[in-house]
Amino acid sequence: MGESGTEGTESKAKDVRIQSGIPRLDFILKGGLKHGGIYALMGPPGSGKTILANQLCCNHIQKQEGRCVYMTLLIESHAKMLSHLSTLSFFKTELIPERLYYISGYQQVREEGFSGLMELIRRTLRERQATFFVIDGMESAEQFATSPQAYREFVHGLQAFTNLLGCTTLLVSNVRERTHVENAVVDGVIELSDKLVGPRAVRELTVHKFRGSDYLRGRHEVEITGDGVVIHPRTEIQFARPPEQAHEQRARMGFGLRRLDEMLDGGLPSGSTTALIGAPGTGKTLLGLCFLVEGARQGQPGIYFGFYEPPPRLIEKAEDVGIPLERYVKRGLIELVWQPPLEHFMDSLAEQLLEKLRAEDKKERRRLFIDGAEGFRAAAVYPDRVPRFLSALTNQLRMQDVTTVMTDELELFQPELNLPTPELANVVETVLLLRYVELRSQIYRLLSIMKMRESRYDTSLREFRISRDGIDVADSFESAEAILSGHGRIRNGRSKKKAEEPKKKKVGVLKKVLGRGGRGGGRGK
Length: 525
Known about the structure:
Blueprint: H1 2-14, E1 17-18, H2 25-28, E2 33-34, E3 38-42, H3 49-64, E4 68-72, H4 78-85, E5 100-104, H5 106-128, E6 132-136, H6 138-142, H7 148-165, E7 168-173, E8 188-197, E9 200-210, E10 219-225, E11 228-232, H8 235-238, E12 252-253, H9 258-263, E13 268-269, E14 273-278, H10 284-297, E15 302-306, H11 311-320, H12 325-330, E16 334-338, H13 346-359, E17 366-371, H14 373-379, H15 386-399, E18 402-409, H16 424-427, E19 430-439, E20 442-452, E21 456-457, E22 462-467, E23 470-473, H17 478-485, E24 490-491, E25 494-495, H18 501-514, E26 522-523
Parallel strand pairs: 3-7, 3-8, 4-5, 4-6, 6-7, 14-18, 14-19, 15-16, 15-17, 17-18
Antiparallel strand pairs: 1-2, 8-9, 9-10, 10-11, 12-13, 19-20, 20-22, 21-26, 22-23, 24-25
Helix pairs in contact: 5-7
């Protein structure tokens, strides 16, 4: 038993990590760089290598009280580099030169070769008592190698020395070939890329190799902000295995519209996700705001997460139809989070939303309205990721017991029901459909429940009306049936004439698409 305990202690000692302090990079590396390891950071000019390397140094000093040496070869001057870095929040000039020491090694390698460069490195690291070492511009050093073998031996000798010293090393270069000679010797290979995907410029980080540890594979989105390099791991990889967790006593979360809530057997099950689909102008946003306001009336906090309408316009729009949104926003029960129409990163949007919800994790029965799914699609660099992304995101929302309504946009007056994100209907528990129907030069809105898992629901179509008096759902399916059949509604004992045959035929097609109206006690499958 004693031997087993000793082995465990030795194993932990060997796995000491140097945390990067960079959001989510340590998550990708499952804890950070290994103490005493040597790693290659490669990528084209402009991909963020120098910023990332300096950020690692500054974070290591401030978070782990380390000492860093930053050696440059044939790259920009120290004065110019420090001038650029001074605009970033992580960079502190007071760390220079005591804790962060900059030195050039180019003249040494040019005049004395690798032996002279190695002697300079040994002397400097010992004198500065360095725990983290960066060589920026390794492609310049390679030019002075007499052969690939000589270059390999230099990297191998550097690895042996820094490991003995307990100094973690980062070799930065513009080399982009994964099979490059140094990549076979080092403990890990990290690549930063900068490329155009259509009109968009996209930076990404990929870990190609990381000895002695698991890591998240594949490409991950990268942003360079005033805080330095920010990395967004793919959402479907971060949450590939959500923990099993069940919330007891699931409640019904209504919309505050009596007839709709009756159709839903009391409301949406708490912790579920609902897709609210419809053409532009059918009332998706207003119905989603009704959902938030009804929760606020009951003291349940809610978040609006939208892409197209800024908060002032949203409040004005709601108040015009009698939805008291502003009252609950001022009370702090509803938070309006608006994403300006800029180029977003899909994983960054998910992180922003989930982190906001985690910060309020102690609150129960929370409601979320995402308006709409097309905002995530527009932010996707790779469209084929969207189904897996939505599945991972909705799973995380369920795990936090958040009841979510998410809109998705149909084309205006399309003859058939073609979802822009067909997979969305598979990952949600409930699908509500809002549609237009044209009859005698009049536009009508119809509402129906297309699917609702683990619950009874009314399968009938209902007329859905929006006016200055508010939102109203018809008492029964009769008005919807009259519209679809081409018969006018009965008013004051009179019946309007039947619609012309061409109109009736057109509406009949829509009826076939939507499904027949009728009272139901349907159960989702």
